[in-house]
């Protein structure tokens, strides 16, 4: 029994000594795993935000693009938009998109862009 314990102790010491010290050992310690699928969607979402902000996409087109991105696995449930005002899911997604656009827009441009996007939403209810 004692010899088994000695072998186990020797193996444990060998394993511990073969592990890199905390904080790295001078070798690149960047994770080698791919980013999560949710994070992988971020560049596409950023493009939609920038395109709507710049007027290359309408707000309705931006909402459609965001909903398509949300459907890609892992899907983002529609319920995440329940915190935003709006009578329809599209309007709630639009409110989220406007907020995200405001966050990346310089203050000097924010009011004009927000008015343009709010006018677009107002036009949805007139149809």
Q: Characterize the largest beta sheet: strand count, sense, and whether it forms a barrel.
A: none
Helical content stands at 55-70%
Total of domains: 1
Oligomeric state, counting identical vs distinct chains: single chain
- Please state the CA-atom Rg, rounded to the nearest Å: 25 Å
Helix/sheet category: mainly alpha
* Average pLDDT level: 79
Query: Count of DSSP helices?
Result: 6
Proportion in β-strands? under 5%
> What string gives the helices and strands in order?
HHHHHH
Shape: globular
Low-confidence stretches: 7-16
Please report the total strand number as a whole number. 0
For the termini, the CA-CA separation is 84 Å
Notes on the protein architecture:
This protein is mainly α and 127 residues long. The chain has one domain (37-126). It has six helices and no strands. The longest helix is centred in the C-terminal third of the chain and has 20 residues, at 107-126. Residues 7-16 have low confidence and may be disordered.
């Amino acid at each position: 029994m004692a010899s088994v314990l000695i072998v186990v102790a020797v193996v444990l010491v060998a394993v511990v000594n073969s592990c890199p010290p905390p904080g790295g050992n001078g070798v690149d310690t960047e994770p080698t795993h791919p980013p999560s699928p949710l994070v992988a969607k971020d560049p596409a979402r950023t493009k939609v935000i920038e395109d709507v902000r710049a007027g290359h996409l309408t707000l309705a087109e931006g909402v459609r693009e965001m909903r398509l991105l949300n459907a890609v696995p892992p899907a983002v449930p529609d319920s995440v938009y329940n915190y935003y005002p709006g009578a329809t899911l599209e309007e709630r997604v639009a409110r989220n998109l406007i907020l995200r656009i405001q966050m990346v827009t310089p203050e000097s441009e924010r009011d004009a862009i927000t008015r343009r996007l709010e006018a677009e939403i107002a036009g949805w209810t007139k149809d």
